[in-house]
């Protein structure tokens, strides 16, 4: 596996040039995603986990009109489809967008539904516990990941790598057999991980300057389950 990683990195660097950041097992490129992906050969990537800009006017994005934004999403997702291996997966996190006169919060993936060639396996809910308090609606406490695959019948899924060992009755049996897998239970499609907090005396140990940082535990579960 290590030799394969080294070979993959060498291939990336031969096509994209030197990485902007290098560390063991890591290469980071700061490039236009569409231009960079178009330089890469098909079926190169086994897993993509991404949370692109939501197009809601944050300081790190340029807000586009809705149709232009959806067209852009379709372009990079289509390019990613070409790059994804036959057993590969694509995990997408996108938030909500307001549609004046129609809705306060439309889930962006719903607007991309008929534009994505990947096969949707499941929607995963990340419940992060704390957040802003709403006054004219329920306070938001979750984000959603859509788990897509290239091949609906043959895809990588390593459940044993992410089983939850917090089992209430681990030794309970039925007809002489354990009811629960000895390695733990399926963690389900609702994941309970605290968000990465900021602020004096309350910042998470893993906090960086990123304005929308995911907990390592969330991404680690995806990588362990959906790649080798």
Structure, described:
The protein has helices at 2-16, 33-37, 66-83, 108-111, 216-226; strands at 21-23, 26-28, 45-50, 84-93, 96-99, 103-107, 119-127, 142-149, 173-174, 177-178, 190-192. The chain is an alpha+beta fold and 228 residues long. The radius of gyration is 20 Å and the shape is globular. The chain has 5 helices and 11 strands; from the N terminus they run H-E-E-H-E-H-E-E-E-H-E-E-E-E-E-H. The protein has 2 domains: 1-30; 43-165 and 191-226, Vaccinia Virus protein VP39 (Rossmann fold), CATH 3.40.50. The chain has a 5-stranded mixed beta sheet with strand order 3-4-8-7-11. A hairpin with a 2-residue loop joins strand 1 and strand 2.
| Mean pLDDT across every amino acid position | 90
Question: What is the H/E order?
Answer: HEEHEHEEEHEEEEEH
- The CATH class of the largest domain is Alpha Beta
Question: Which consecutive residue ranges, at least 5 long each, have pLDDT under 50?
Answer: none
Total of helices: 5
CATH superfamily of the largest domain: Vaccinia Virus protein VP39
Considering DSSP H and I runs of 4 or more, what fraction of the residues is helical? 10-25%
How many domains?
2
Distance between the termini: 9 Å
Q: Which structural class do the helices and strands define? A: alpha+beta
Rg, please?
20 Å
Biggest pleated sheet: 5 strands, mixed
């Amino acid at each position: 596996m290590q030799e394969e990683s080294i070979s993959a990195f060498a291939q990336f660097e031969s096509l994209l040039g030197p990485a902007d950041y290098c560390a063991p097992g890591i290469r980071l490129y700061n490039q236009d995603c569409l231009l960079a992906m178009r330089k890469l050969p098909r079926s190169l990537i086994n897993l993509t986990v991404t949370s692109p800009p939501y197009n809601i006017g944050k300081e790190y994005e340029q807000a586009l009109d809705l149709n232009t934004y959806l067209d852009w999403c379709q372009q990079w997702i289509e390019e990613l489809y070409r790059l994804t291996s036959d057993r590969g997966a694509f995990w997408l996190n996108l938030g909500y967008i307001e549609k004046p006169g129609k809705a306060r919060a439309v889930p962006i993936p719903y607007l991309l539904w008929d534009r994505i060639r990947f096969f949707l396996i499941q929607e995963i809910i990340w419940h992060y516990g704390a957040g802003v308090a709403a006054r004219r609606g329920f306070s938001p406490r979750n984000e959603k990941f859509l788990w897509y695959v290239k091949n609906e019948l043959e895809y990588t899924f390593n459940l044993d790598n992410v089983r939850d060992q917090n089992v209430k009755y681990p030794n309970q049996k039925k007809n002489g057999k354990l009811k629960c897998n000895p390695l733990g239970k399926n963690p389900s499609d609702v994941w309970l991980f605290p968000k990465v907090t900021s602020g004096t005396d309350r910042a998470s140990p893993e906090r960086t300057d990123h304005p929308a940082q995911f907990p390592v535990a969330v991404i680690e579960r995806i990588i362990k389950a959906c790649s080798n």
